[in-house]
Amino acid sequence: MAGQFSGKTALVTGAGSGIGKGVALRLAREGANVAVADINQEGIDAVAKEIAGLGVKSLAIKLDISKVEEIRSVVGKVVGEFGGINIFVNTAGIVQSKKLVDVTEAEWDRLIDINQKGTAFADQIVGAQMIAQIPESEKERIKAAGYADKSWGKIVNFASVSGRRGREYQLCYSASKFAVISITQSAALAFAPWNINVNGIAPSVVETPMWAENNKEKEKAFGIDAKKASDEFIARIPLKRPGTVEDMAGAVAFLCSKDADYITGQTLNVCGGFEMD
Ligand SMILES: NC(=O)c1ccc[n+]([C@@H]2O[C@H](COP(=O)([O-])OP(=O)(O)OC[C@H]3O[C@@H](n4cnc5c(N)ncnc54)[C@H](O)[C@@H]3O)[C@@H](O)[C@H]2O)c1
Description:
There is one protein chain. By secondary structure, this protein is α/β, with parallel strands linked by helices. It contains 9 helices and 7 strands; from the N terminus they run βαβαβαβααβαβαααβ. Helix 6 links the parallel strand 5 and strand 6. Helix 1 runs parallel beside helix 2 and helix 7 crosses helix 8. The longest helix is centred in the middle third of the chain and has 29 residues. Nicotinamide-adenine-dinucleotide binds next to helix 1 and helix 7.
């Protein structure tokens, strides 16, 4: 299929639903072969089928991103099937909204393992793979020049506006998303010599299963009606509407495009103006 990502291979985690699914379909519509990974096997099987219907190749692989060996195995399978990875979008994640005083150690460990450790090691493993794919002759040329004159890979992590400031009801989630912003910067610096661009996206509200879960948890912990909790948050967004999966996928497509070759280490607020720093 013709398109700006034609001939490229993308790996999208968390692609079994919500934003990850929308991102995977957008990259496929723009010509990429797309591997989708998620803990939700049924979800990725359906998305992979939809992608194949667009005339590009797809592959569904089950992944628990909190397990580093599983990340390594998924990357190995994608490389075995497609020969390499050019675009990596990491949307896999979970949310927790709960009174700070009620958070347990086990809940902290689980959320940090998925959102923070998962992002760190996925970036590490995919980044190493992207470097390994650069032909030796190009590596020599890059070393001689002192810089890479083109991008050799694109990585996009999903942070959140909750990674911009703390929330009294999101002790673990907010901490994990601050960490995603820092991991994005560290990986961008580490992979900069090869011009592998690493950026992040910080959404405010996107009406996916996660947003519904977030509001249900708020209802349980604070007794605020879930719909009211959602409406009140959205009313604080300057553009007065939730973001859509397409809004997120569009930002990802831009960050993975040639137009964004000179952008790295940035986390873009795609949030209707909710955060401006
Ligand atoms: N929806 C929002 O309002 C919103 C706002 C800010 C940030 N985000 C971030 O965007 C990303 C995508 O969220 P979404 O709204 O699409 O949520 P979602 O719940 O629809 O999708 C998240 C996906 O991650 C998968 N997942 C969960 N645990 C996993 C694990 N251990 N290993 C692999 N996959 C796992 C789920 O199965 C699911 O398919 C998340 O990182 C989230 O924190 C979302």
